[in-house]
């Protein structure tokens, strides 16, 4: 199951989104998808001493109200990397914490005390047990290339990301 970190910032969603993108870029990670309106950013790391395969990570940025924003960053080891690696050594969580810290720095704030680490993930990942499960990958592709391209899709995704992680904790 993917590991995630979460924090609430007393900043507007647009500012948290820009700061998170800047954090990812400044740390040299490869941006694979971003959509400001839905608050979704996906990126990946390359090979490291801890992770031969690299990591796939996603950020979900949810506006709780006008000036309060929730940032969730989670990920897991790439399945299409070095097949000899069977354990990720917690690399996704380490990267997520670094991006969270850099985002907070970009915003000029300390990491909020409400930051939590959890084994929570979204519904499909929780049900299938693996962020890199082919079905989960297909669902992300479907979300990115179809759902987010239609008029009601962005609203649906916002609602899903607001409530989906809570349901995933139950699964």
Descriptive account of the structure:
- This protein has helices spanning 13-26, 91-107, 123-128, 134-145, 153-170, and strands spanning 3-9, 30-35, 40-44, 55-65, 68-77, 116-118.
- The chain contains five helices and six strands.
- The chain starts with a strand and ends with a helix.
- Backbone structural class: alpha+beta
Q: Tally the helices: what do you get? A: 5
Number of strands: 6
- Overall body shape: globular
Estimate the helix proportion, in percent: 25-40%
| Rg (CA only) | 15 Å
Sequence of strands across the biggest β-sheet: 2-3-4-5-1-6
Main beta sheet? 6 strands, antiparallel
Runs with pLDDT <50, length 5+? 81-88, 114-121
What's the N-to-C terminus distance? 11 Å
Content of β-strand: 15-25%
Question: Care to give the gist of this entry?
Answer:
The protein has 171 residues and is of the alpha+beta class. Helix content is 39%, strand content 25%. The protein contains 5 helices and 6 strands; from the N terminus they run βαββββαβααα.
Using brief descriptors, characterize the structure shown.
171 residues; 6-stranded antiparallel β-sheet; 6 strands
Helix and strand layout, with pairings?
Elements: E1 3-9, H1 13-26, E2 30-35, E3 40-44, E4 55-65, E5 68-77, H2 91-107, E6 116-118, H3 123-128, H4 134-145, H5 153-170
């Amino acid at each position: 199951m993917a590991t995630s970190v979460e924090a609430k910032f007393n900043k507007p969603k647009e500012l948290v989104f820009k700061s998170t993108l800047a954090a990812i870029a400044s740390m040299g990670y490869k941006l694979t998808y971003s959509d400001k309106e839905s608050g979704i950013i996906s990126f990946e790391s390359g090979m490291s001493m801890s992770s031969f395969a690299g990591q796939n990570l996603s950020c979900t940025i949810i506006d709780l109200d006008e000036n309060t924003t929730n940032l969730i960053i989670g990920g897991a080891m790439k399945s299409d990397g070095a097949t000899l690696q069977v354990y990720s050594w917690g690399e996704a969580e380490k990267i997520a914490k670094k991006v969270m810290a850099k985002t907070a720095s970009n915003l000029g704030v300390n990491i909020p005390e409400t930051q939590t680490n959890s084994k929570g993930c979204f519904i499909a990942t929780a049900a299938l047990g693996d962020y890199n499960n082919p079905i989960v990958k297909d669902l992300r592709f479907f979300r990115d290339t179809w759902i987010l391209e239609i008029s009601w899709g962005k609203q649906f995704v916002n609602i899903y990301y607001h409530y989906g992680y809570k349901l995933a904790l139950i699964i």
